[in-house]
Specification:
Chains A, B: This is Polyprenyl synthetase family protein. The structure is a homodimer. Chain A is mostly helical. Helices cover 75% and strands 1% of the residues of chain A.
Chain lengths: 369, 369
Amino acid sequence: MNHLRPLPAAGTVAEQAVYRQAVADGLGSFLDLKRRELLAAAPDAAALVDAIADLTEGGKRLRALLAYWGWRGAGGSEAAPEAVRAGVALELFQAAALIHDDIIDRSDTRRGKPSVHRQFESLHRSRGWSLAADRYGLAAALLTGDLCLSLSEEAFSSIDAGAGSGSEARRIFNQMRTEVMAGQYLDVLEEAAGPSRPAGTAVERALQILRFKSAKYSTVHPLCLGGALAGGSRQLLQSYADFALPLGEAFQIRDDVLGVFGDPAATGKPAGDDLREGKRTVLIGHTLNNCSKAERRYLEEHLGSPLIEDSTIEELRALIIRSGALAAAERMIADLTSAAYGHLEQLAVSPEVSGALRTLADAAVRRNS
Amino acid sequence: MNHLRPLPAAGTVAEQAVYRQAVADGLGSFLDLKRRELLAAAPDAAALVDAIADLTEGGKRLRALLAYWGWRGAGGSEAAPEAVRAGVALELFQAAALIHDDIIDRSDTRRGKPSVHRQFESLHRSRGWSLAADRYGLAAALLTGDLCLSLSEEAFSSIDAGAGSGSEARRIFNQMRTEVMAGQYLDVLEEAAGPSRPAGTAVERALQILRFKSAKYSTVHPLCLGGALAGGSRQLLQSYADFALPLGEAFQIRDDVLGVFGDPAATGKPAGDDLREGKRTVLIGHTLNNCSKAERRYLEEHLGSPLIEDSTIEELRALIIRSGALAAAERMIADLTSAAYGHLEQLAVSPEVSGALRTLADAAVRRNS
């Protein structure tokens, strides 16, 4: 029962499905072409493209869909090739980031399958090859991510109109890449340097990291990129950003909550994975702020330990709840979501676009995976 | 005494020096801008740009210089901004490839300094940070390489004329990236799968790897890219490739010889580094083809062993010489160089451009570092 919100119009739902299919088809045919090129020249190297194709079959396509409604809201035409190419470029960029992120975090799974470095490691083992399987897995996944990053750019630069040198869309695409990489570095740095920095500013630092590595990247940049491609005014793009930034922050805090409390069957990640990786999220920041010295020592001792026991994960979860950190994170999600919806109502776009954005926003912050 | 070859004209030398300086200045100001952007938003992340700036101060700039003479040979004007931007993009791409290559090969040094992952590892140790220093080094270097790859593209896409969507220069730049990554994967794969593949085709496989990961990338693509940017004809670009492919092959075989026999003081790499890394080069292929079964076992046992002793390196070197592999590699370098010079004489370019290309070719195949 959801009488308070208008349901998205049937036409909008159908239009989004057409775009989503066009992005999937675009990804498929672009990667097929690359696979054929490599098969002709160096067949063994086609394995890199296979890994990318496999990974990009999954995912929520949030960034591509935001780019699409940003494009439509700025007057771009239905299912236009420029918007499809932008979606393909964004999905490939996201895949590249995930492949390298999984190397950094030593994640075993992604989207419910083995992560790319684990896939190559298994291949090495099953063939009984020489030297260390884990080094081979790392090298192959690193190169797959590099290729995927390059292909993302190749897709982006194939957009004819509006994405050339000096354009606003190009500027956004460049800024997005730099900020994501900077944000991921801040994240890695915080894992290392965080314990020796003041607990009192841990939430603030976690917010800066999530803004760079996730919030702007997942929502602001895709939406504005779509808008810029369609020639949206500076004012429209600013109003897109006003709506999308709190949405992206809420999206990432939801992700952080799922990283500790999510159901592995839904997230495709092991339970409490963020604790094992030592991610110092807003959730951890709030916990550090509100727990006893002994609890803080316990948390610092186990956070980022690859061999953390399931029972310890249970105790850490209980601590996070007891400290009020989970409630604080849920409150932040609620406040940010409410701010985003407030800005959404101010957007100078058609009711169809506004409705589609509301549906995406709902999915982003209310999801369980 | 070098009476047989014409010395490059003084004007050409001066012109190349102007271009080289313009590329250094272009790199410096582009990276300064990026550093300032990051310092304003996320100061800690400026460390990534610092690492890139430090690495790109060194190097022979072979790819940028080839792009320049390719540009000039096709009628491009002296020290034009397009050629400088192409040089900046190529140098940044090379830096990105080196940063990730050093992670894959676990190299401690690059251009006479600690490799990027080792620099970040040392930073971690000196600050006494939490979690493992080597994991931090790997993560930070991986992200630095990703940023460098993105900045390379940003520089390339800022070339106004001739490098846009659908242009020949864009096609070459895209192909270069895909081929380098594919070639690096073939290299990693050969280290793992090579010992179980027939020794009789080891030289052939090594040649395919070097063509992809190095020869085309180091010479063919930069030269043709410069030519394409200046609007060179298909025929001119083909003649560039005819000259540059054997040159690039000779260049890489010289690199392989230096990787085993080079002087650490000149190469900036430890003695016999390629043996430690397990690189299965043309030199190794020839050795495998021409040694006894017992020698082959000895070679396979020690190749790619990170803890290989200096005395073992000496014995492996002696084996490579005794098998005739070093002489065979030198013969290949001589034949390929001679083929390249033959094609150089056929190039429809001015004597100045031809002279500059000859000087670069000499440096590429006769170097000791």
